[in-house]
Amino acid sequence: MKIKHLFAAALALIIAGCGKPEAETPIIPEESDYIGTVTVIYQGAPFDNENIKVNFTPSDDAKTGSLTLHQIRFVPQMPVTIDVTIPDITLQSTTDKVVLSCERTIPLAMGGEYPRYTVTDLHGEIVGNELSFSLNFGDYPTSFKGVK
Amino acid sequence: MLAVLFISLLSVVSPVRDTLLVPATVTALKETVSPDKIASPVSIIRNTGLQRSSTYRPLMLSGMVPGLYIPEYGASLTSTIYLRGLGSRMENPVMGLYLDGFPVLDKNTFDFDWSGIRSATMLRGPQGTLYGRNSMGGVLSLQSLSPSDRPESSVYLEYGSSSSLRTGIVSAIGNSVISASYRHSNGFFLNGFKGEYCDPYDGLSAHWKWERPLNEKIHLSNSLWTSLSKEGGFAYGQLKDGVLHPVSYNDEGSYKRFSLMNGVNARWFSEAIVADASASIQLLSDNMRMDQDYTSDSVFTLQQRQMSCAGTMEFRLKRADSRAAWQPQTGVFALYKLNHMFAPVTFKQDGIQRLILDNANSHIPSEIGYLSIADSEFPVDSDFLIGGWNIALFHESVFTSGRWQFTGGLRLDCEGGRMDYDCLASLNYRFVPTMGSDKRFSVPYKGFAVHNAVELLPKLSVLYRTSKSVSLYTTISKGYRAGGFNTQIFSDILQNMTMNGLMKDLGVYLDRPIVSVSADDTEYAPESAWNFEAGSRIRRDDFRAELSAYYIAVRNQQLTVFPPGMSTGRMMTNAGLSRSLGAEAELEWTPGDFRTRAAWSWCDARFMRYNDGNNDYGGCRIPYVPQYTLHLSAGHSLKLGRCVLETDAFLHGEGPFWWNETNTVYEPFRLRLDSRIALVFDKVEIYIRGENLTDTPGRSFYFKSIGNEFFARIKPRTLFAGTSIKF
Q: Is the dihedral of CA B528, B530, B535, B540 positive or negative?
């Protein structure tokens, strides 16, 4: 009986090995930290937050993800920096990049939802070691470009 | 508990065996020469002088000993001692206190009631070579009555202002002398907020001394001191708009203390050598509660509960022939002390709002939101286990050649300590508007810190006798005050850690984060002082006089500073250099039935270098130190048939004071008059007496708490009547 089973398994392997080459699979998103510059358009002029760490965390099924911007300042006058998490970002993986998008979501900051800076029109992508995205934090157009 | 202790003591007292009693040979001082030949200023106040001046606590010796100032404020644990410009409110004292030759290690027990004291002897100036740590200002040695003094048994009772009651007994039984005293007072300062006196006192003290020669070569003695007290305190009034307001605070201010010290001494005599072996065990259990803002608002409170146990051992060898030209003395000393301290600071509603939330929210833009703490109390718990040790080896030789006497000594002192801390701050917070409900946040802080130090304490002195009754001396000596740990700063460390941690938990980062010291920075090193002194001494039958001048240079001065970022905390650090320049005089003249005594001191104590992190105080006078102390007493005994009328008056003066480091808060020199009139019969004495008869409105302490200024007042006029009966 054992010999019979071994034979069947070997046959299956041979058949599989003789099949057509498999198509390239989409990238599986992974949690990563990216360091780069966040630029906020404030009163029509760019305001750069340099060396900002952005954490990207996909969900278990890799269909959604979140971005956490650490110690960001929206306007130069802010006497504090804050951590802001953007949840519910839709992820779409291709073979060479992960596309991020979100029409509208309420970010999380200071222990809860922070509707004052509701995120709209988020578009971005992860290509290789690079993350870039743009969005509106309330009335402030914001963009980020950074590397792992 | 004390009653049980007493009964057990009485049960072990030997029956009267007068034949075994020998004159007391165990002197409280360690010097190999008599006090008249010590090359340092020496003040001796004997039993009768203590009784006539109604001196029954160490702090009452203020001014009676030139330069000694121990203000009465706070509670019994705040025995702050200033001597020759040395001293500080916190931690280790600058004066060593010895009871029957045993060192009292904990400053919290320095203020106690005594009875049955034979003499109070004060050696002024650093006595580090023989006495070691914490004697850089001097040593106060209290010697109790010995069985060999054959004291008459007596009871006494005194009643006076504020329902003050003081009663006690002294009794010699066999080889023992037992004394006990009880004191009560309703208090002298009314807490306007509570409508009751804030400083009531009830205290019980007891002492048992036992001496017995085992044989011709061995003499044993035991000395036990214990006290139990419960009191209020912290009679601090706020200075507002230049007016000193009455005491008015809402939270509890109290202090409870039990202390016990038992010392055993064995003296072995041989033809060539006298050896002293002594050991003591010291226990302290106390509990202090304090309204730390001293206002009627609910800002913050402090509790400090301690349970400490300490042991000392000393072995000394000296020459048996006290008339020999060379008098060497060599000894070793060791101590170990373990203290468990629980010291929580509790921020209450007003304190949470003003000291924490207002401070934190001032950094957060209002359009982002604000921090809210719903708790009515924010406890910052601090638990410490502090062990400390000291080992010393010392030698001192006195050479006498004709009229000259030379003294040289050296002490090697090694000390160390370890502090284990276990602290926790917990609160429930909410950030509005982003958080819908409260969130628990805790900051545990555990660890340990250690410190070690080695000190060499030399001494050189020369004494020259110009005649039989007059001598001149000069001395160079070094003393030091032990190092330690700042436990009182931990509440601030925890408070700042909580705020920083809470902000981080929120994901909010201040541009100027709250900086704080850490536990690693809480150690402070020993403070040392070099003393250069010259003096003269006259001893004649009924006339004694002593005049001395000194210069003291203090290094690594232990000073209270405001660490960066601290909102309420202060800590001891080795921040400065200072110097004291002074002169002291003491006269005693007892012609016939008259008696007079005068003690005077002048001290110019200044910072040479002191920057507390906010200001530079170089050149300023050291606060709390009176520039002058004065004590004048005059008395007369008049025979009236079968009794004697004793009349005594005592004038006390101290000041001027500079109460703060910038020397902007000043109080001029002040005088107080005490007096006593007694009718003394053979076995009975009846007296009336008064303290501060001039009702001088002086101040004894100044401090700032969260920006508010406070003063403690000296006690007002008080009157007493009493009696003592010998049996």
A: positive
